[in-house]
C-alpha cells in the first residue's frame, strides 16, 4: 500500500510538472456551456476567446484554452474541474460563472494547488479559507450594501420584499446581506419568498408579495427567473420597483421579461463606458469587429479574467502554478487590479459597484461608483423615483 501511494504521489507530481514544462501554456476554462446558465457561459467564453486573440502568447509560448462544460450543475462542475486539474495539464483555471459551481470546483483547484480565477462568482464562500482561488468582481456584501442604500435613499423605500433562489449560494448570500443592511439602516423586510433555479410559475410568491404591499422588491436571482418573475408580477398588479444583482446582466433578461423589466435596477461591476483604458478600447473594437456587437458585462469580465491570469504569468516569469498563485496573491492596487485591466478601477483594486437601469431594453449606467450612493446622487428615471 505504501509503495502504491508513493507511486501515485510521484505520478501526480509528474503531471503537475508536465503542465508547466511544455512549450504550450494550457489554461483551463470552466464554464456552463449547457443547462440553465448556458447563455452566460457562452458570453464569458466569447470574451475569453477575443482576449486570447488579442494576446495569444505569454513568455514566448502559445496559449491554448482547454474548455470544460459544467452543464450548469455543481456535480458536473466538480467533475469538470477534476478533468482539468488531473488530465488537461493546466497551469491555471478561469471559471466558473456562478458561485455554487465555483465553490464545488474550488475543491480540486485547492487540492492540486492550481490557481483558479473567477470572473463573476460573488459569494463570500468562493474565496473564504481558500489559498488558490481568486476573483475579479466585488463580493456579495458590497453589492447588497449598494442595493440597500439605493432602496432607502434613492427610492425612499421603508419596506422591502425579498425573493431568494435557495438553490444558489449567490442568491442566498445577497438576500441575507441585503436584509441585514436594509433593516440596520431603518428599513423593514416585510416578506421573504423562496424559489429554485428552473422555476417558471411564481404565482404563490407574487401573491404573498402583493399582500404585503412592499415599497421595493429585492430579487437577487438569475436573468431567466428574474425576467419571468417581473413579467408575472406586473400582470398580477404588483408595480413596486425591482432591484436585482449582477446575475441578471444578460440580454436574456429582456428576452424573458420584455417590457416588464423596463426601469428594473441592478447592481453591477461593469458598464461599457468603463472600457476607457487603451487595452479596454482595443478589446471593444476587436470584439465589435469579430462579433458585430458591443461587449457586455460577461464578455468583458471573461476577457478581464484571461488578462489577469496572463499578467500573473508574466510577473511570475513562469507557468508553474505555485508561482502564478503567488503572483495573483501579490497584485498591486496601484492603478488597478493589474497593469492590463480592461475596466477602470480608480486604483482601488476590486471593481466598483455600479447601478444600471434597463431603459428602452438597454442597460444604462445611472450611478457613479459606490462612494457616491449615500448622498442620493443617482439620476433615476421618473418612473422609479419616489
UniProtKB/TrEMBL annotation:
One Pfam family hit: Peripla_BP_6
Keyword Phosphoprotein: no
All copies of domain Leucine-binding protein, residue ranges: 24-360
Signal peptide location: 1-21
Record bears the keyword Heme: no
Top-level taxonomic group: Bacteria
Keywords: Signal
Sequence similarity: Belongs to the leucine-binding protein family.
Protein name (record): ABC transporter substrate-binding protein
Amino acid at each position: 500500500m505504501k509503495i502504491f501511494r508513493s507511486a501515485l504521489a510521484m505520478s501526480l507530481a509528474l503531471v503537475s510538472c508536465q503542465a508547466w514544462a511544455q512549450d504550450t501554456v494550457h489554461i483551463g476554462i470552466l464554464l456552463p456551456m449547457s443547462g440553465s446558465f448556458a447563455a452566460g457561459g457562452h458570453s464569458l467564453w466569447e470574451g475569453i476567446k477575443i482576449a486570447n486573440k488579442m494576446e495569444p502568447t505569454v513568455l514566448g509560448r502559445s496559449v491554448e484554452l482547454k474548455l470544460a462544460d459544467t452543464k450548469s450543475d455543481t456535480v458536473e462542475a466538480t467533475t469538470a474541474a477534476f478533468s482539468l486539474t488531473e488530465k488537461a495539464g493546466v497551469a491555471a483555471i478561469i471559471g466558473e460563472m456562478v458561485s455554487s459551481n465555483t465553490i464545488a470546483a474550488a475543491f480540486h483547484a485547492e487540492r492540486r494547488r492550481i490557481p483558479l480565477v473567477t470572473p463573476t462568482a460573488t459569494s463570500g464562500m468562493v474565496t473564504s479559507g481558500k489559498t488558490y482561488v481568486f476573483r475579479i468582481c466585488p463580493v456579495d456584501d458590497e453589492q447588497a450594501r449598494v442595493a440597500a442604500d439605493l432602496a432607502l435613499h434613492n427610492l425612499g423605500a421603508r419596506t422591502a420584499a425579498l425573493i431568494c433562489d435557495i438553490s444558489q449560494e449567490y442568491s442566498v448570500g445577497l438576500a441575507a446581506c441585503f436584509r441585514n443592511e436594509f433593516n440596520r439602516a431603518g428599513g423593514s423586510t416585510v416578506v421573504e419568498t423562496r424559489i429554485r433555479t428552473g422555476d417558471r410559475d411564481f404565482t404563490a410568491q407574487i401573491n404573498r408579495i402583493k399582500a404585503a404591499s412592499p415599497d421595493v422588491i429585492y430579487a437577487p436571482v438569475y436573468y431567466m427567473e428574474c425576467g419571468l418573475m417581473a413579467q408575472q408580477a406586473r400582470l398580477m398588479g404588483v408595480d413596486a420597483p425591482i432591484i436585482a444583482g449582477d446575475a441578471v446582466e444578460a440580454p436574456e433578461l429582456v428576452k424573458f421579461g420584455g417590457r416588464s423589466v423596463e426601469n428594473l435596477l441592478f447592481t453591477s461591476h461593469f458598464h461599457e463606458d468603463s472600457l476607457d483604458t487603451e487595452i479596454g478600447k482595443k478589446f471593444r473594437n476587436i470584439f465589435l469587429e469579430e462579433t458585430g456587437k458591443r461587449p457586455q458585462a460577461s464578455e468583458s469580465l471573461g476577457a478581464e479574467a484571461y488578462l489577469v491570469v496572463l499578467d500573473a504569468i508574466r510577473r511570475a516569469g513562469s507557468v508553474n502554478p505555485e508561482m502564478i498563485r503567488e503572483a495573483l496573491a501579490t497584485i498591486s492596487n496601484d492603478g488597478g487590479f493589474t497593469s492590463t485591466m480592461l475596466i477602470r478601477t480608480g486604483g482601488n483594486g476590486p471593481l466598483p459597484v455600479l447601478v444600471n437601469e434597463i431603459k428602452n431594453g438597454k442597460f444604462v449606467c445611472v450611478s457613479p461608483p459606490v462612494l457616491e450612493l449615500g448622498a442620493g446622487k443617482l439620476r433615476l428615471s421618473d418612473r422609479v423615483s419616489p
